[in-house]
Automatic annotation (TrEMBL):
Species for this entry: Caenorhabditis japonica
InterPro entries the record matches: H-NOX_domain_sf (IPR038158), Heme_NO-bd (IPR011644), NO_sig/Golgi_transp_ligand-bd (IPR024096)
Domain of life: Eukaryota
Protein's GO biological process: cGMP-mediated signaling; response to oxygen levels
Protein name in UniProt: HNOB domain-containing protein
């Protein structure tokens, strides 16, 4: 359905350009939707979100789990470290000149996190939801809910950049001990910004 040469759609070390990737994701949405009814199609956003969760699962199962677990003591710190991780992977591991997305986290007085996501590639923000939920679950033993608060296009560095603001809320679970999503206390949160 994605019009790939038979057998090339699953090459792990292959760089897929955005057109190829979008063809593959659209085909997946049609195939998965077709499992229940021939007319159904699942939203592309759900495919991207599932991919984000799978990406963390795959990354941890292929030897990167210790690095991911060592990045930060809490989810906020992990998210604030993603720019460095992307740089390391793109420039050191794969020796490319790619520039990944950028992330910035703000702790709110109510304990939620605002995650600012910036990317030159529009429409991929649902991947972030899958990644963050899976990281929270696998590394920080907690469940979170993510909602898009704002999505806009900005002009940064002579490029149009998608800026998505997520609200991340920790789901309280009385049956288990959870790690907080931020180690900052109320007195450490700067409310003057």
């Amino acid at each position: 359905m994605a019009k790939f040469e038979l057998g090339t759609e699953s090459e792990i070390a292959h760089y897929y350009n955005d057109d190829e990737t979008l063809r593959l994701v659209n085909a997946m949405a049609n195939v998965i939707g077709g499992c229940w009814c021939t007319v159904l199609r699942i939203p592309i956003e759900e495919v991207w979100e599932a991919y984000g969760g799978f990406l963390i699962q795959f990354t941890m199962e292929t030897g990167w789990d210790e690095l991911l677990r060592a990045m930060a003591p809490d989810l906020e710190g992990f998210l604030d470290s993603l720019d460095s991780l992307h740089y390391f992977i793109d420039h050191v591991v794969y020796k490319t000149k790619l520039r990944g997305p950028s992330f910035r986290c703000d702790v709110q007085a109510d304990g939620t996190l605002l995650l600012h996501y910036y990317s030159k590639r529009s429409g991929l923000y649902p991947i972030v939801k899958g990644v963050v939920r899976e990281v929270a679950r696998r590394i920080y033993d907690t469940e979170v809910v993510m909602k898009v608060q704002e999505r806009k296009q900005e002009h940064l560095d002579a490029f149009v950049t998608e800026h998505v603001v997520f609200v991340i809320t920790q789901i309280e679970n009385s049956n288990s001990v959870q790690k907080a999503i931020s180690s900052k206390t109320d007195s450490q949160i700067d409310l003057t910004q």
